[in-house]
Amino acid sequence: MALDVEQIMFLLQRRLNGMQEMKRLTGELLESASRNDQVSIGLLLQMRADEMARLEAAGERIWLMAEQGPEEAGQVRRLMSQEFLKAGRPEGFEEGRIFEIRSKTASLLNQVREADRRLNQSIGGGRSYYASK
């Protein structure tokens, strides 16, 4: 059975959409923290946790596709590896779209991490995870 690269593309797009939502929610968290709005912070943290669960589920579905066989496992590993992004040489339309989606997702992830770091420092102050770094 051949690997359904189009399905991987669809699931990665779902993850990209989820990362865009994570970025939005993290921005709202920063705003709520600056207002010290504890109710909004609690709601937004739960919404973020739900979004993370959806992202994880999409990722798990991709990795389950690798269980179809050794060839499929190799293809999934290649498409999901950092080397695939670093090489920048996708083969065909679907791989080109996967490359674009993964690149955008990686960029969004870095933006969310940076916003999360600022949020953690804002809320935690000297007790922040990042205070000692």
User: Fraction of residues in helices?
Assistant: over 70%
Number of helices: 5
User: Gyration radius, to the nearest Å?
Assistant: 18 Å
Broad structural category: mainly alpha
What gross morphology would you assign? elongated
Q: Please give the number of β-strands.
A: 0
The average pLDDT value, as a whole number, equals 92
Uncertain residue ranges? none
Share of residues in strands: under 5%
CA(first)-CA(last) distance: 49 Å
How can the largest sheet be summarized? none
SSE topology string: HHHHH
Main attributes?
0% strand; 82% helix; 133 residues; 5 helices; mainly alpha
Description:
- The protein has helices at 5-35, 38-65, 70-80, 82-87, 92-124.
- The protein is mainly α.
- It is elongated, with a radius of gyration of 18 Å.
- The model has no long low-confidence stretch (mean pLDDT 92).
Quickly describe the structure.
This protein is mainly α and 133 residues long.
Layout of helices and strands:
Blueprint: H1 5-35, H2 38-65, H3 70-80, H4 82-87, H5 92-124
Helix pairs in contact: 1-2, 1-5
